[in-house]
Amino acid sequence: MKAIPLTLAALAAATAMTGCVVAPRPYYHAQPVPVVQPVPVVQPVYAQPAYAPGVVVVQAAPPAPYAEVIGVAPSPGYIWIGGAWFWEGGRHVWHRGYWSAPRAGHYWVGHHWEQVGHSWHFREGYWAPHRR
């Protein structure tokens, strides 16, 4: 009769020792994602500097921007290029922000939407030369 409780105790101990082990998840640093530049839908009617991108004009207001978590820069001096809603395929598509190496003699002008009358104008971000 003592063999059954002893066998059960051994079986319980063996089962406890084969339990799952929860290992910590590896941390993956988010890598910059290249932004695919959309094709301008409507060309502007005013003159722009040669370095400025085209303007997209749509009737739909862009959604609220996502709150992005900005991690540590991959190298000192890198610049955060914030994410934005782009107009692609007849709808708004979010492009994540990313870190970018600075360009000598230039500064970053961010993407932005601007309401003009009943339409919305999107101006892509670009590197503009410093004026001297």
Walk me through this protein's architecture:
By secondary structure, this protein is mainly beta. The chain has a domain at 55-61 and 78-132. It has 1 helix and 9 strands, in the order αβββββββββ. The longest helix is centred in the first third of the chain and has 15 residues, at 3-17. The protein starts with a helix and ends with a strand. 6% of the residues are buried.
Give the topology, please.
Layout: H1 3-17, E1 55-58, E2 79-81, E3 84-88, E4 91-95, E5 98-100, E6 106-109, E7 112-116, E8 119-123, E9 126-129
Antiparallel strand pairs: 1-8, 2-5, 3-4, 6-9, 7-8
- Helical residue percent? 10-25%
Radius of gyration: 27 Å
Strand content: 25-35%
Q: What is the β-strand count?
A: 9
Mean pLDDT: 77
Overall geometry comes to elongated
One letter per element, helices H and strands E, the order comes to HEEEEEEEEE
- In whole angstroms, the N-to-C terminal distance is 97 Å
Low-confidence stretches: 42-52
**SSE class:** mainly beta
